[in-house]
Amino acid sequence: MTFATTIIQWFRENGRALPWRETRDPYAIWLSEIILQQTRIEQGRPYWERFMQRWPTVEALAEASEDEVLRLWQGLGYYSRARNLHAAAKQVVARGGFPTTLEGLRSLKGVGDYTAAAIGSFAFGLPAAVVDGNVYRVLARHYGIDTPINTTEGKKEFALLAQSLLPSDHSSFLMPHSSLYNQALMDFGATHCTPSSPGCPSCPLQETCVAFREGRVNELPVKQRTLKIKERHLTYIYIRYRGETALHRRPAGDIWQGLYEPLLTERVLCGAVLLRQNVKHILTHRVLYADFWLWEPAERPLLPEGYFWVPESDLDRYGVPRLIEILFDAVHQHTASDARTQSPG
Q1: CA angle, 58 then 60 then 64, to 5°
Q2: C-alpha to C-alpha distances, 21 to 123, 181, 245, 278, 333, nearest whole angstrom
Q3: C-alpha to C-alpha distance for 53 and 81, rounded to whole angstroms
Q4: CB burial class (10 A; 0-12, 13-18, 19+) of residue 284?
Q5: 3-state SS class at 106
Q6: Of 185, 321, 323, 333, which one has the greatest count of Cβ atoms within 10 A?
Q7: pLDDT per residue as tens, the chain (345 positions)
């Protein structure tokens, strides 16, 4: 059997049942691909379901406000994906529907080569090879390729190889073979040829796998280390005055653009209570260390420019990054602790 035939046969027996695979609707497929960028399926699936329930069509999503989209995205991280998702929905509506070519799909905000190939293949049956982290790993191991996958040379080499392996498209009643193969290869990498502890003993490709034969499974794929991690220290103060707190919306040009946060300061206010210190929060390019304080002034303070008062009961209406969710949890725990301490008996 050929490489593609073996992968497809494995997929028919072991493939995951996912709701966006049960449709050819480009909106549902595009939404899943954007959500699953940098996100595991187990985490992303509930978000896909909530988005589909809240905005079942691209037109409905386009009509939503950015705040609504960011709020529903809260907890997924990489918030530029949510902003791009919203902008692309408006693009699709403006042009009267989803593009049906790779070039057209790449013109959408937040859609690169991989996502365009995935949408084109899964929704429209385009003969385009999908190359994600799972595909890189399977191909690198099976063919013994040690070209770094995050270099221009590596990306070109793997893209050409992936396209050459794409089966000729004899459409079945389920889906075109190219789409079936793409999904099969991605699933094979995600669940069988995994980064650690891959299923080599039961692998249907074992006899032809170069990495297995040469004992190099744990060495491939190769990735150049180019990312420089920076540290950043933040001090947040949750101001509470008569059931209200202060927020402001983060501006463009920094992390968490468009999300909300409490007072970010360089100095601690007199009378503030330390809730959590040196909380570590890891982003792709940064490691954040944050101190959380609670300040309950006797009089309503003047807020810095850009901040505004919000009833604490309405905080759920504002999209915040995960770090701020941790701060809110610390405030709630402190409040509950105080209530228990002050209760009679």
Answers
A1: 115
A2: 9, 13, 44, 43, 42
A3: 19
A4: exposed
A5: helix
A6: 185
A7: 789 999 999 999 999 999 999 999 999 999 999 999 989 999 999 999 999 999 999 999 999 999 999 999 999 988 999 999 999 999 999 999 999 999 999 999 999 999 999 999 999 999 999 999 999 999 999 999 999 999 999 999 999 999 999 987 554 434 557 899 999 999 999 999 999 999 999 999 999 999 999 999 999 999 987 767 889 999 999 999 999 999 999 998 888 999 999 999 877 778 889 999 999 998 878 899 999 999 999 999 999 999 999 999 999 999 999 999 999 999 999 988 776 666 665
Helices (H), 96-148: 102-106, 113-124, 133-143
Nearest to 285 by CA among 213, 345, 231, 212: 231
What backbone phi and psi angles, to 5 degrees, belong to 238? Answer: -85, 110
Q: What is the pTM of this model?
A: 0.80
Q: Which string of b and e fits 27-38 if b means at least 16 CB within 10 Å?
A: bbbbbbbbbbbe
Residues 11 and 247: their CA atoms lie apart, in Å, by 49
Query: In the structure encoding, which two tokens stand for residue 196, read together?
Result: 């650690």
* The two three-digit tokens of residue 94, written as one number: 């403006």
Q: What's the one-letter identity of residue 259?
A: L
Element (H, E) at 27: helix 26-35
Say how far apart CA 260 and CA 337 lie, in whole Å: 26
Cα 321 to chain centroid, rounded? 13
- DSSP secondary structure string, 161-175? HHHHHPPP----SS-
CB of 9 closer than 8 Å to CB of 192: no
Q: Which of 13, 22, 33, 219 is catalytic?
A: 33
Residues 6+ apart with CB under 8 A from 42: none
* Sequence-distant (≥ 6) Cβ neighbours of residue 21 within 8 angstroms: 122, 183
Query: Is the distance from CB of 243 to CB of 172 less than 8 angstroms?
Result: no
User: Which is it for strands 260-261 and 244-249: parallel, antiparallel or unpaired?
Assistant: antiparallel
